[in-house]
Amino acid sequence: MGFFAFKPVMIPQAPSSIRLALESPDPPLQLVETPDNPIPSRPTVMKIETEDGRSLRAARWAPTARRERGTVCILQGRAEFIEKYFETIADLRRRGFAVVAFDWRGQGLSDRAVGDPYKGHVRSFSEYRLDLEAIRANVLEPYMPTPHFGLAHSMGGGIALAEARDGRLPFERLVATTPMIALCLIKSPKVAAATALALRLLGGGTSYVPTGGATSVAKKPFAGNPLTSDSLRYARNAAAAAALGHGAIGDPTVAWMDSAFRLMRRFADPRFPREIRTPTLIVAAGADPICATPAIERFAARLKAGHAIVLPGARHEILMERDEIREEFFAAFDAFIPGTPDAGFGSAVEELEGGVMDAAVAGGAD
Predict the structure, then answer these.
(1) Which of 87, 151, 175, 363 is deepest in the core (most CB within 10 A)?
(2) C-alpha dihedral sign at 264, 101, 289, 176
(3) Mean pLDDT in the chain?
(4) Across the strands, what pairs with 173?
């Protein structure tokens, strides 16, 4: 099937305070703003071509602090989009970081490989490698100040860890929040994996997973949601998803799910984490109903250049959580990124552990 040709996002009866930031009339070069989610100032929005001909929407920002500390590249999770990270982008810029954000193929306002724009589809997770390589070659290296760091969430964390293991990750350090090491929202992962493979072999690779549909998880009711305990940020992201239209995708396809299980089987090999050489901080959520925190902790314990912390009470989307949880996260982030070139990884770990403890005490934790 051909690529989905994007048309300008039309927002019926949108309030006048919603606007589009454009670098050119080309539809992929849009950032969508809502009243509670303003576009960070002075973005440069770019259309990036991958080696296999896909178009990605990317954006970059300069820091707002005087002291420049390098660049943070955000690797979003499945079904996410640049707009969800506007608050985090502003937080990073105030810390002195330039920021790069982009939409993976098959989501946001990047290209689709199937006709239904709401399907989260890739044939193989190896395609995401081409996306990251395109961002490295066309954004990070030509435009962004060094050193380069990665901030990866969920699926993005899984992709980043796999790239680090294969020696392809273009970052000096990596922070991964609730990475997709293993899933806990599926009661029988082995049965689900076998089902996905069987359906794919029967020609159903581009179909939604069983019981799946076009509704974005961001548009579902707040009550009982697995993403965050912060109702205001949840509502903000729901409004952003509604404004983005088909950029906020629904459930994944069978091929995506089959590929995800293949990746997670790699993580189950005890040798995998030992072969990662990129200094890595993994931040897991104590109340995550999507990714399995115990599996994340076991994986992180085997890292030679890595460490994990667990934030009690946090659901899956740590960066979209309540202020006190985000403060604990940034205490760890600030201690670990950018790091001290002449200090060992152990020094950074001791510093970040102290920072998280200080934040927890300040927040009233025992």
Answers:
(1) 151
(2) positive
(3) 88
(4) 149
List pLDDT tens digits, range 172-210: 999 999 999 999 988 888 999 999 999 999 999 999 999
Closest CA to 336 of 274, 280, 273, 272: 280
Lowest mean pLDDT among 57-71, 185-199, 248-262, 270-284: 185-199
Q: Is 130 exposed, middle or buried (0-12, 13-18, 19+ CB in 10 A)?
A: middle
Torsion-angle region of residue 238: left (phi > 0), alpha (psi -120 to 50) or beta? alpha
- How much is the CA Rg of the chain, to the nearest whole Å? 19
Q: Indicate the fold that domain 20-361 takes in CATH.
A: Rossmann fold (3.40.50)
Closest alpha carbon to 334 in 14, 97, 32: 97
Contact at 8 Å (CB) between 266 and 276?
Answer: no
Please state, in angstroms and rounded to a whole number, the distance separating the CA atoms of residues 45 and 22: 7
What is the spatial distance between Cα 296 and Cα 310, in angstroms, rounded to a whole number?
10
Tens of pLDDT, residue by residue over 26-69, are 444 789 999 999 999 999 999 999 999 999 999 999 999 999 99
**pLDDT for position 5:** 29
Determine the residue type at 6: F
Residues whose CB is less than 8 angstroms from the CB of residue 323 and which lie 6 or more positions away in sequence, other chains included: none
Say what the pTM is.
0.87
| Phi and psi based region of residue 223 (left: phi greater than 0; alpha: psi -120 to 50; beta: remaining) | beta
Mean pLDDT of 88-95: 98
Between CA 326 and CA 309 the distance in angstroms is 13
Q: Residues 188, 111: contact at Cβ < 8 Å?
A: no
Q: Where does residue 11 rank: exposed (0-12), middle (13-18), buried (19+ CB within 10 A)? A: middle
Dump the DSSP string for 2-60: PPP---PPP-TT--TT--EEESSS-TTSEEE-BTTBPPPSS-EEEEEE-TTS-EEEEEE
Q: Name the amino acid, one letter, at 363.
A: G
